[in-house]
Write a structure and sequence with these properties.
The structure holds two protein chains of two kinds.
Chain A (H helix, E strand, L loop, with lengths): L1 H24 L7 H40 L6 H39 L2 H7 L4 H38 L5 H11 L2 H27 L4 H31 L3
Chain B lengths: L9 E10 L2 E11 L4 E6 L5 H9 L6 E6 L2 E2 L5 H8 L2 E4 L11 H11 L7 H14 L15 H13 L5 E5 L7 H18 L2 E6 L2 H9 E4 L4 E4 L11 E7 L2 E6 L1 H6 L3 H7 L2
Parallel strand pairs in B: 3-8, 3-11, 6-7, 7-8
Antiparallel strand pairs in B: 1-2, 1-4, 4-5, 9-10, 11-12
Helix pairs in contact in B: 3-4, 3-5, 4-5, 5-6
The chains are: A mainly alpha, B alpha/beta.
Chain lengths: ~250, ~270
């Protein structure tokens, strides 16, 4: 029984030790700037297509779904407002984070996991470099910079998606849609919408790297880590999202 | 000749390393003086690789203490260990190369990434080429490790280990699974590195022949070949100690002559050719 509990507790402890080290390394030399830029390219530029597509279609779907409800109250003119608020506060950050978690948490876990099982992590340490500094910290910094940017792009394309529906199907004028969308947003919405991806970036990078570093048991182990990293990162994004939202929305 | 009182390059003091319940190293003690060669023989799973990893601080001992260049590394924090590790060259059994980097990037890795390493790009390039020329693989700069054969990968591993000119070199089964000719090439490189730079050399192996090369031969820089070490003075190779490990314990320690005279059945098994 105790052994059953020991494993998860140890894993959580390892996770926090790794996180602590990775975050502390942010201010410490040496800084592997090349690795940060490379990771920003894979995570940021690499995720652009799916972020654009999910952003656009989630905005469009939202506009479609809301129309039904808004029509009951004769408030179809509020489409822009509702799309803007749900997108900027909630859908943009969460959907983008889930997409990036699916792509990059698993990617990090499999990349680092393969290095772990082929002794490359040991080689790295043997050559006098710190794998946390070389592998984890650049991924953390890159994700923390890139995810808020991706979220902004997703938010914007979501609004464009909503506009397409409003313009072509609901026959609203561009001014009607964009004005109501623009006026609906307050600074607190933007702040909430940007602090979320920043927090999710830590989940994505650290969970991915943690499962990579924990990998044992050859190729099969790499597969296991990859799946776990993606599942755990996704679940924690939802959990964290709840708590951040709870903090901003005082009931 | 009066020996200078220098700390041993590597010293294990009653070191025990446990994985779960089994002890990979069991109260192992050994000492390797600077400039010496050391051959560690043992069957599979006798704790040889664990010994090297413990020497690097990759594995922390459960009991006992480990000294490298006189520094007690047993409880040293990871960051300070890095400074010690940059003075040690380690060649992993399968080479341990980074498979997503080219050969050039692999060999340049310690020069570019070790904390405190400051080399200009020209200097890095020069040293990488020099190290690859040393292992006679200067034409593979742009290749990836997967494009090379097992023996070549190990040679790249050696190039990467020697590029920083470390004072202590650790080789993990450098000839395991190689044909005799390739194995000879690898051993010749190890001797060449040892005899041109007088680096302390530790080699872990299952093959007694590797130990014979190390103890009885030397690299002749003028002919570029290995030749029997004989007598004393310039022609004598460095002092070579043999250790035999069995299930994590040191069961024999001594010179080659003592090893061949040893009557213990387990030890004698390795000497048989």
């Amino acid at each position: 029984m105790l052994d059953l509990l020991k494993m998860p507790v140890l894993s959580v402890q390892e996770f926090f030790v790794l996180s602590g080290r990775a975050i502390r390394n942010v201010t410490r030399r040496p800084h592997y700037v090349d690795d940060i830029i490379l990771q920003m390219d894979t995570i940021g530029v690499g995720s652009l297509p799916i972020v654009i597509l999910t952003g656009f279609f989630s905005g469009a779907v939202m506009a479609l779904q809301l129309t039904k409800a808004l029509m009951t109250y004769g408030a179809v003119g509020k489409t822009g407002e509702l799309v803007a608020i749900t997108l900027v506060r909630e859908m943009g950050p969460v959907l983008t984070a889930l997409m990036v978690a699916g792509r990059n948490s698993s990617g990090m876990a499999s990349e680092i996991g393969s290095m772990k099982v082929t002794e490359q992590i040991d080689a790295m340490r043997a050559l006098g470099t710190d794998p946390t500094q070389k592998l984890v910290t650049p991924r953390l910094i890159a994700t923390a910079i890139v995810l808020p940017l991706l979220t902004i792009i997703a938010d914007f394309l979501g609004l464009v998606g909503g506009f397409m529906i409003a313009y072509f199907l609901l026959k609203m004028t561009p001014a009607q849609y964009w004005n109501s969308a623009w006026q609906a947003l307050e600074y607190s919405d933007l702040f909430q919408g940007l602090i979320k991806p920043f927090a999710f970036a830590f989940v994505i990078a650290l969970v991915g790297c943690h499962y990579g570093m924990q990998t044992t048991g050859g190729t099969q182990g790499v597969g296991r880590s990859t799946t776990r990293a993606m599942v755990v990162a996704s679940v924690w994004i939802f959990v964290l999202d709840f708590f951040i939202t709870r903090f901003f929305v005082g009931v | 000749m009066v020996e200078q009182a220098r700390p041993p390059a590597l010293r294990f003091d009653n070191v025990t390393v446990r994985f779960e319940e089994t002890a990979a190293l069991d109260r192992a003690s050994l000492e390797i003086a600077e400039g010496d060669s050391c051959v560690i023989l043992g069957a599979a799973a006798s704790g040889k690789t664990v010994l090297l990893k413990t020497a690097l601080g990759l594995i922390r001992p459960d009991e006992g203490r480990v000294y490298v260049f006189g520094v007690d590394i047993t409880d040293l924090p990871e960051r300070e260990l890095q400074a010690i590790r940059s003075r040690i060259g380690m060649v992993f059994q399968e080479g341990g190369l980074f498979d997503s980097l080219t050969i050039e990037e692999n060999v340049a890795y310690p020069l570019l990434n070790q904390p405190g390493a400051r080399y200009s790009p020209e200097e890095v390039r020069r040293r990488v080429e020099e190290a690859l020329r040393f292992v006679e693989l200067e034409h593979t700069l742009e290749k990836f490790p997967s494009e090379l054969s097992g023996g070549m990968r190990r040679r790249v591993g050696i190039a990467r280990a020697v590029v920083t000119e470390p004072d202590l070199l650790l080789y993990d089964s450098p000839t395991a699974g190689l044909d005799p000719i390739t194995a000879y090439t690898i051993m010749a490189l190890i001797l060449k590195e040892r005899d041109t730079r007088r680096a302390t050399t530790v080699i872990v192996t299952q093959r007694y022949q590797d130990g014979v090369w190390l103890s009885d031969f030397r690299y002749n820089p003028s002919s570029g070949r290995l030749e029997p070490a004989s007598g004393d003075g310039d022609m004598a190779g460095p002092r070579t100690r043999f250790f035999v490990f069995r299930e994590g314990r040191v069961v024999f320690e001594g010179t080659r002559a003592e090893l061949e005279a040893c009557r213990d059945a387990y030890v004698a098994k390795f000497v048989r050719r």
